[in-house]
Amino acid sequence: MSFGCINFLMREQEEKILNSATKGKNFAIIGALCLLAYLAGSVYLITKATNSTVYYEGIGNLNVSITVETIIGWITIFLIPATLFTRNLKAVLCAASIYCLYRLYNMIASFSASGFLFFLAATAFVVAIILTMKKSGLISFFWFLPAAILLVRMVIMYVNTFSNGVTANLAGSFWFTVIFDVAQVAGYLLAGLWLKAAAKE
Q: How far is CA 125 from CA 2, 84, 119, 140, 163, in A?
């Protein structure tokens, strides 16, 4: 094989890697925007429902109020999209680990199927980041797990909501809730695609 042919193949491979890296960065940015939209939705819905009674799956009717714990939750949720913008794996791992601990605390404090699936998704995301940092081939099986778990949670939550006839308690915010939950699933799906691309760089 001639030197010119080898050089051409090497350039072609470099272009593929560059394109993959560029797409990966785009996935991270769009994913971060989706997660910020989810956070904005959470802030909006909780603020709107403050001092009212809302039904929560697995818990029942609760009075909604903004507490220190609520604000800490918003901060931990914000850390992941904020670090995704940097595309720094170590920063994202740190943010995802903090968020995972927050979800673990919530699950222990008040166990529910929804809380358990939130924690499972957060754990899967941490594992996916670690696999990416280690350039492990297992990332091919893990990159979509956080989004898949959140999708299962979303389906279970809404099926339970309708089966218990509590749609009226959503106070007209049902479609807003659906849109923001879809944004969260999309955010983790895109973040997973970024991790998958980053593992190949």
A: 45, 13, 10, 13, 30
